[in-house]
Amino acid sequence: xxxxxxxxxxxxxxxxxxxxxxxxxxxxxxxxxxxxxxxxxxxxxxxxxxxxxxxxxxxxxxxxxxxxxxxxxxxxxxxxxxxxxxxxxxxxxxxxxxxxxxxxxxxxxxxxxxxxxxxxxxxxxxxxxxxxxxxxxxxxxxxxxxxxxxxxxxxxxxxxxxxxxxxxxxxxxxxxxxxxxxxxxxxxxxxxxxxxxxxxxxxxxxxxxxxxxxxxxxxxxxxxxxxxxxxxxxxxxxxxxxxxxxxxxxxxxxxxxxxxxxxxxxxxxxxxxxxxxxxxxxxxxxxxxxxxxxxxxxxxxxxxxxxxxxxxxxxxxxxxxxxxxxxxx
Amino acid sequence: xxxxxxxxxxxxxxxxxxxxxxxxxxxxxxxxxxxxxxxxxxxxxxxxxxxxxxxxxxxxxxxxxxxxxxxxxxxxxxxxxxxxxxxxxxxxxxxxxxxxxxxxxxxxxxxxxxxxxxxxxxxxxxxxxxxxxxxxxxxxxxxxxxxxxxxxxxxxxxxxxxxxxxxxxxxxxxxxxxxxxxxxxxxxxxxxxxxxxxxxxxxxxxxxxxxxxxxxxxxxxxxxxxxxxxxxxxxxxxxxxxxxxxxxxxxxxxxxxxxxxxxxxxxxxxxxxxx
Amino acid sequence: xxxxxxxxxxxxxxxxxxxxxxxxxxxxxxxxxxxxxxxxxxxxxxxxxxxxxxxxxxxxxxxxxxxxxxxxxxxxxxxxxxxxxxxxxxxxxxxxxxxxxxxxxxxxxxxxxxxxxxxxxxxxxxxxxxxxxxxxxxxxxxxxxxxxxxxxxxxxxxxxxxxxxxxxxxxxxxxxxxxxxxxxxxxxxxxxxxxxxxxxxxxxxxxxxxxxxxxxxxxxxxxxxxxxxxxxxxxxxxxxxxxxxxxxxxxxxxxxxxxxxxxxxxxxxxxxxxxxxxxxxxxxxxxxxxxxxxxxxxxxxxxxxxxxxxxxxxxxxxxxxxxxxxxxxxx
Lengths: 329, 275, 331
Prior knowledge:
The structure holds 3 protein chains of 3 kinds. Chain B is mostly helical.
């Protein structure tokens, strides 16, 4: 589906360069739900923008590559290299941005906002009527009434708007859907609805879904596999179940420990300190400053992603010794 | 980015200072009252003795121009200061008091904004027929220029009214006037100054318009009356460019300077607020 | 319900404006140092000789118009009735005995034509240029466009008019310095002379008017470009043209329409003086001539009329706005 190799995505300005994504390698597999987790500023939003191929100045790909393979119109696989991905936007790969409350044009009807997403080359663009019928059908499947089409965004409730946006991102049946914090700033009930919608669609259409969220709970509920990012690098990667029951990176362990659990009393632990500067990153492991287990080696050398088993990888010098593993009960 | 607004403000300020110099300092050096007719030979071209030549009425164009700039600026400043002060008072009152007072004042403000001021000014000025002093003309201009600062003052008052620091002051027992002066002035001054400059521009332009038709005080020297007299004496047909051209160019440059200063100021205060 | 309140307040403003204007016109003659009626009659008499009955009739008419008959309240009442109901300002004193209303009616189409055309052209052109400047706001072209607008905007209409006259009627005599329509209405010669004569006045109005629209539209457009929905449109793959039209323009146009209402008064004042300077046969020249000739009937008539016209146009635009903004239309 998508192969990311040693990606470096930096924000380059005349005065500073922020190395938001600094050497990320990842495979996105067809039909999976992949989660990308981490705190604010770790680079996950930048990564996903690069994955989509949306690179507004000053964001540039300074190194590495992203190869996206989609099924062409005749069914044969086509590979596109970043950053020239515009040709497959929306039809083969779509993007649900962060903070989607105000993402709809306030003075244009909802249906027109669907229409202008259809690429010019698509014959459906000419036949509005057929498109409309398809849309009504599709919306029905998503539990949205057909009246939504004629409405203006301000007439819809927050939850409805969010679902319209999900519908907008999926109505062309793209093979890869990237969702950046799809549940942030929503109340819990709506959150559940959105997640359910996304997963139901995924099951039905068999597309690949990538969910970026700082909320570990979301990942636990929904994703098959997850990647934990810290300071521009991936520190742990593996099946969600494994990552949660057997985290091999101290950061992951701390993230999981900070989640509330039913039946547990007592204070939740936060993680002291803050992430390092992405302009002048430290020499060795970027988590070394905050890591309770850090050694001299950790501070000198950047750890590579190594295999823990066939499906689980971690970037930590101490991983083989199994120091960070397990959850404190 | 920094260079950009500095250049606007700088350019504007330079132009305005030039005119302030020409209008307030230079006239003190004029040999005699340049309004008096026939003090010098007529229709001379530019020379060392007469920098911009002389007019058909036997006046030195250059000295007349400096007096004209001075009087136009005086009219502009008086109008602007009065209009801004009145506007601030009315607007703040409306915004703070709310209720009926607010509604009445707003109605007044909106009405005056919509009325095309020039026709009424022409009406008023035509009956004073060339006998009105500069002060009176300025007074008449104030009547139509207070609504703009008033509107902004009201908007400021409405938004600031709810802010915590105002509530704090209120509850600690300070008088409304003191609250206005101490807490609000810093917020208001950012756009009030810009507004003032803009009003100077509008006032000078309006007086000029009145003068060109001939309803301002024809005996006085203002940029507008200069154009009026030039046109009365067929300066266009006779190709006396300096006489009619210099006030036209002066107005253009002065206004561009005022406008640049005003937008430069607002850009400056926007960056100060960290926009 | 909300709309009715809005409608009511707008109509109230309109009536208020008209009332203030007319009332000012009513009170103004009282500021004249001497009896204005006699002064006017004396001047008329020196220019042309009239029969005593005519003079008496004019005295009656003038006294009524100036509101000098009866008690203050009666005067005001009859003045209002005459002006608002019958639109009768009496005969023009300089073009006696043609009624003022006829002269105004004759000049009206010219003014409307000029004002309408130049306002529309300035608005459309200015907004288009501003849209481009705002959309590509970091490019040089944007800075050039905005810079030019900044140089043009502060210049008063009449100053630019004068500058254009100097340049194009005298220095390079391409256009006539004064308007004169030749031939019969709607002959080719007539149309040609009208276009030739209207070109400079229209150019002057459009050039100054442009400035404001470019500047304000650029500010609006560049703000809108920062909005989330423009970002999303880009992600969807909408083209530059599509975004400019459907997203930026549609959202920016609404405030620009309200702004149009506020600008009408200013544009009208500008047109007034421009017409006079070019000798264009519109209401502006009428006012100026009236003032120069102390034709009080005409002054009152044209000014009252101007106030009503501008206030009315503003009202119409104000009322149209809710129908354009879907956020207000559908609640």
